[in-house]
Amino acid sequence: MSHTSGASSSSSSCAACKFTRRKCTAECVFAPYFPADQPLKFANVHRIFGASNVTKILQDLPESSRADAVTSLAFEAEARMKDPVYGCSGAISLTQTRILELQAEIQELVDQVHHLEEKKPMRLT
Amino acid sequence: MSHTSGASSSSSSCAACKFTRRKCTAECVFAPYFPADQPLKFANVHRIFGASNVTKILQDLPESSRADAVTSLAFEAEARMKDPVYGCSGAISLTQTRILELQAEIQELVDQVHHLEEKKPMRLT
């Protein structure tokens, strides 16, 4: 159901205005980032951050940064829905563990290179 | 200023109840995780997620998981305060870039090991 009408309204409500049953105006801060065909994106962001907090975050940013902010908020919200305990901190923890593993692997290879270089035949060039 | 009194209250309000000027009872869902001496931890979480969303997240979790959930929420909130565009997704992006760099470093070392092994003098043992 669309709640838009009149000259100042967009032709259809965005996902945020549909969800919150508000009139979607041309000034809607959500409309450019929450199209009507992606209702879950807004539902997740609303459930985790709340529409009013997201409004504040977006309004405090220049328009050029808002799309990236919405992408990261949607990513974090989805991660929190999937993993209510760790959210996307779980992903950070996993990648940090992976970094430690890779660093250990590098150290082993460096040791192997040193060992092989010690055994390399002397050259006269 | 403490808002607690009576038998069902804790001896002092937690940071969440102080912030929201509510009476902090023995059943307060925030009290075990937001001590009065860490007011910023709650202020950040409240600003980014909203107290009511955090209440819902915590109430949906078993008590044994709530401390970890609060730690990750506080981490994400602080990251979003520092970087309103990318939040902790920025940290994930940086660690993923670091992983790619380390994988490239490993590949170089593996190539170096192969090269050195090819030049290794034959042994008769």
UniProtKB/TrEMBL annotation, chains A, B:
Main location: nucleus
Gene Ontology MF annotations: DNA-binding transcription activator activity
Keywords of this entry: Coiled coil, Developmental protein, Nucleus
Gene Ontology CC terms, in alphabetical order: nucleus
Annotated compartments: Nucleus
GO biological process: regulation of DNA-templated transcription
Pfam families, per database record: LOB (PF03195)
Domain LOB as annotated: residue spans: 12-113
Residues in coiled coil: 92-119
Family listed: Belongs to the LOB domain-containing protein family.
PANTHER family, per the entry: LOB DOMAIN-CONTAINING PROTEIN 4-RELATED (PTHR31301), PROTEIN ASYMMETRIC LEAVES 2 (PTHR31301:SF83)
Protein name from the UniProt record: LOB domain-containing protein
Origin species: Marchantia polymorpha (Common liverwort)
